[in-house]
Amino acid sequence: MKNTRDTQSLFDLSKPGRRAARLPACDVPQQPLEALLPEGSFTQSAPELPEVSEPQVVRHFVNLSTQNMSVDTHFYPLGSCTMKYNSKRNERAAALPGFADLHPLQPESTLQGMLEMLYGLQTYLQEISGLGACSLHPAAGAHGEYAALLVAAAYFQDIGEERTKVLVPDNAHGTNPASAVMAGFESVSVKTTDSGFVDLDDFEAKLDDQIAVFMITNPSTLGLFEVNMQEIADRVHARGGLIYLDGANMNAILGISRPGDFGVDMQHYNPHKTFSGPHGGGGPGAGPICVTDKLAPYLPMPVVRKHESDGGVRYALDHEMPKSIGQIRSFFGNVGVLLRAYCYIRTHGPDGLKSVSENAVLNANYLLSRVKHILPVPQGDRCMHEFVASGSELKSEKGVTAMDIAKRLLDYGFHAPTVYFPLTVPEAIMVEPTETESKETLDAFAEVLFRITEEDPELLHEAPHTTAISRPDEVQAARQPVLACPMC
Amino acid sequence: MPYHYNTAEDQREMLGAIGVDSIEELLAPIPEALRLRRELELPAALSEMELDAHTKKLAGKNASANEKFCFLGGGSYDHFVPAVCDTIGSRSEFYTSYTPYQAEASQGNLQAMFEYQTLICRLTGMEVSNSSLYDGASAAAEAVLMAVSSTKRHGNVVIPTSVHPEYRATIATYLHNLDASPVEVASPGGVVDVEALEAAVTDQTAAVVLQHPNFFGCLEDVDRVAAIAKEAGALLISVFDPVSLGLLQRPGDYGANIAVAEGHTMGTPMSYGGPYLGIMACDQKLVRRMPGRIVGQTVDRRGTPCYVLTMQTREQHIRRDKATSNVCSNQGLFALRAAVYLAQLGPQGLRETAELCLQKTRYAAQKLCESERFSPAFDQPTFKEFVVRDAENDVEGLLENALAAGYLAGLPLGRWYPELSDCFLVAVTEKRTKAEIDGLVGQLTRVASPEEALPVGG
Predict the structure, then answer these.
(1) Cβ-Cβ contacts under 8 Å, B82 against chain A
(2) Second label for A9, Cα 20 to 30 Å away, from A319, A464, B74, B398?
(3) Nearest 5 degrees, angle CA B78-CA B79-CA B80?
């Protein structure tokens, strides 16, 4: 039920003297603060935090939560984000004190279960990739891209080659070119064809001995398996370059095709997508990377190693990696997310993982077969795990935009697909149903989409009509930024 | 099959509607040579019950702070996590939603992030905050990149060795292929050598990074370092401890231009180091250089105040290779937990937490150093951790014995500071009781005192 009173600003709920937390009395002999710290080190006034009671805190945030759509409450076909169901059994495992209450720098002898789990995950990810080495450190997919590009840079420096460029197809995620620049490379865009594949002429024209890495998303952001994958990899390798796979779309190929078998030298995973880590309103994610054996010495440190001897098995962190790019963050990685990925892989096993991808592809193709009669899908009748429809005809005929459709879907209880990405498709509507949705849900979504295209354009321009707010004024937000509550 | 969402009948109907006979036909776009024609070599599937038993067994092989008394610090701390953080943090609508691209269906997340940004501004005394980065170390590295791009100075970035070694390592990695280099300044007395720092700062210094309280728990002379940075036109990047701000000067008070922190200490357990919360706040004038998502307040078409992701022209999905950073996701869940934590504690609770840390840390340091074997490594005031020197130079043996007695007693420092190989770092949060501290001191000094080490009757 709507509750506007308790969703007013947290700061407006505040009243001087009110408090929620009560701390234990100090049980050690107390000394005057002035005797403990030098004059001048103290803040002049306490931070102006709100003064609220615990019931207020709970009611405020619980009511806020009800203003969100989420995977647990709604179909969330946000293309490229793989919004699949997050199994609750993984949450229970992650909350075990034996995982949750571990300090990152405690002795390895007290971490053998944790290290065993992480070592296991390293080997599973290597097997799924078909690549020989793994680093679990990166905190997100983009962080994995960045780490892998640093690995590539270190490799080329080590073998004495100066390579300055990274090739990125124009339909790639924006993180790819951004990561390339952060890693010190120049990002060069490669065109894709109308069919959605890498334009081989443009690729050939841009391929030279300065190319360090070709970053490819395969299956692509259009949901297509790159037809020229092998040829692209061969040509890049012939020039001494490396192939990086943006692994955002691994959900389509688990146990079906392995990046290491199609020429990939490095890849990241998005375990929060593929292996069902909850997305948490924007994060955390994780971005473990796998690389070929020749790139293994350059991975971020430390890596988990397994030592077997007569005395049994011991797991240890390897900090002695002289060629490593070093650290890219504190401590070991987004272990909580990695643990959920581990649980997911153990729950599914080899046949289950393959079935995940088969059904993700089946669901996407089924929805495509229904949607294509409503909105054109420029890249054809078949897809892998997602497809991109275009609202451009509807826009020219009725003035209805992809954004209008997205907003109206919210009224019908569906989260909107990704819109206006990839940039290569006009009025793009990118739909990724995932394998965890039923046929009934997909049918209902297609029916609603059809109904929307028949609705009065004026109604659609003003959508959504049933959410807590109507469309926000984004221009005002950007031009006159209000980024915090003013002080009272 | 553990997960079987589509029934066999569903699959048949769906294949029929698509117009193919099998799923295999749908996979035809993958060239045969690139197909994996064997099963993945992975362990067989586990049922929920089996998984439950398996993960409990793995967890049981670890010794957690739940069963040991944890005096470990160095960037991760055993602070108390109020139950409300778990309650709110596990709400499905927060937990299983994603980036609020559709503002109308995400006002809960957006308002929570706006409130988080506000809380961080008030906590730090800074003008603007983003809605979080990965962790403290990568936030520090991003701050350095921000400083280089905004000052357009490509000389050096000055970093005392009293800054967390892993943060320094991360900054070095981030700068490695770019045209500014980190310059480290020694901290022989537990705090940075300010004269040496002043000498290292040039007119091409983009930033000075200062951790306060620093890695050793000591308080730096923030005012002096801030003045040196300002004088040289370099930015001051402060690495702070959120809990310390219940008592200590805020980064905004001493003139930090960018303030970053590890924020897991506000409502998220230690979790073996991640996922954590990277806090970043900065001067208003730097906001368009700031990485990460930012939530702003605006109005909707009916004039209702509402919240939206804003200033996206900084970001990779719009600017691609011209973006301020490649950061895409944030740590929304932990930013939410931090917001709940700060609301739950309020100004008084935060102050009391900080005071408890300070009092207990000082008590532990004094008790421990009553023993002849132990002495404070540095003659400096500290906040919630301190460095102890072991006169017998057997840190490893000492900590091992303490572990056997149930204490995660401290961090050996030799790995990062060879000159401190006879020292260890002890952290004391508000959770540690007098009995636990006395127990730790008893354990360490018992092992240490030769007369007590003698056999009974000897």
Answers:
(1) 21
(2) A464
(3) 120
Judged by CB atoms closer than 8 Å, whether chains meet at A469 and B287 is answered as: no
> CB distance B356–A326 less than 8 Å?
no
Stated as kind and residue range, the H or E segment containing B408 is strand B407-408
- The CA distance from B182 to A100, in Å, is 34
CA-based nearest distance A396→chain B, Å: 24
Yes or no, beta carbons of B114 and A485 under 8 Å apart: yes
Question: DSSP characters for A317-381?
Answer: EE---TTS---SSSSS--HHHHHHHHHHHHHHHHHHHHHHHHHHHHHHHHHHHHHTTTS--TT-S
Q: Which of residues 198-217 of A touch B (CB under 8 A)?
A: none
Res B457: pLDDT: 38
* pLDDT score of B226 more than 70: yes
- The secondary element (H helix, E strand) that includes residue B92 is helix B92-95
- Chain mean pLDDT for chain B: 95
B253-275 average pLDDT score: 97
Q: Return the residue matching tokens 């770019």.
A: B178
Q: Which of A92, A113, A350 sits opposite B62 (nearest CB)?
A: A113
CA atoms within 13 A on the CB side of A214: 30
pLDDT in tens, A395-436: 999 999 999 999 999 999 999 999 999 988 999 999 999 999
Interface pTM (ipTM) of the complex? 0.97
Residues lower than pLDDT 70 in chain A: 488
Contacts of A50 in chain B (CB under 8 A): 343, 346
Beta bridge partners of B212: B240
Total-model pTM: 0.97
- Residues A361 and B22: beta-carbon distance below 8 Å: no
State whether B302 and A97 contact (CB < 8 Å): no
Q: How many Cβ pairs closer than 8 A exist between chain A and B?
A: 688
Chain B interface, best mutation among A331, A345, A443, A460, by max B CB count within 10 A: A331
Residue B453 is predicted with a pLDDT of: 42
Rounded CA separation B131/A280 (Å): 13
- The phi-psi region of residue A157 (left if phi > 0; otherwise alpha if psi is between -120 and 50; otherwise beta) is alpha
Give residue B313's pLDDT. 83
Most B-contacting residue of A106, A176, A215, A218 (CB-CB within 10 A), to test interface: A106
